[in-house]
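Page 42, continued from yesterday. The earlier attempt failed because a stray header line got pasted into the input along with the sequence. Redoing it now with the clean sequence only.
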Amino acid sequence: MPALGRARRLAGYTRARSWGLLYRGVEVGRRVQVGRGCRLVLEPGAQLVLADHCAIDDGSTLAVYRNGRIVVGTGSFVGHHATVAARESVELGARTFLAELVSVRDHDHTVGTAPSSGAFAVTPVTIGEDVWLGAKVTVLRGAQIGDRTIVGANGVVRGALPSDAVAVGAPAKVVRHDTS
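This time it went through. Structure tokens are written below.
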């Protein structure tokens, strides 16, 4: 079995490297892994930065539109079938962990207009270092999550969450603040 794990890692490194070679605007650091069945949407002028030692798990989607930018920090992990999408900016800090089915977007449709109109409201998203987003967490446009914060499964993050906190619910509310 160790050989199977090694082969899978090598394939992940190869997929990441190929994204860097095939797509203008993709910067791939050292030992980056991209899983099987991942989807990359990269419009002209868009930028994707995959820092050293980060990993994108199977079936995830990274979508960067127009002049948008996504940064996946050093040692970070994007869980399987997660979606990270930016029209302006989404930044994941170092060692941040997104569990399966997490959705992070810096945009949504403008309220009061039909989605087919193509009108979007856009506000950058910043997620700090050592953050853990549990399964099926949704991070809405304009969210700011402080370092070392945990968001429980199915949480919906809007606005700001402080560092060193545990937040749960929809919308996510701080239930514990670690000051140690």
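Notes: The chain has one domain: 2-177.
Reminder to self: strip header lines before submitting.
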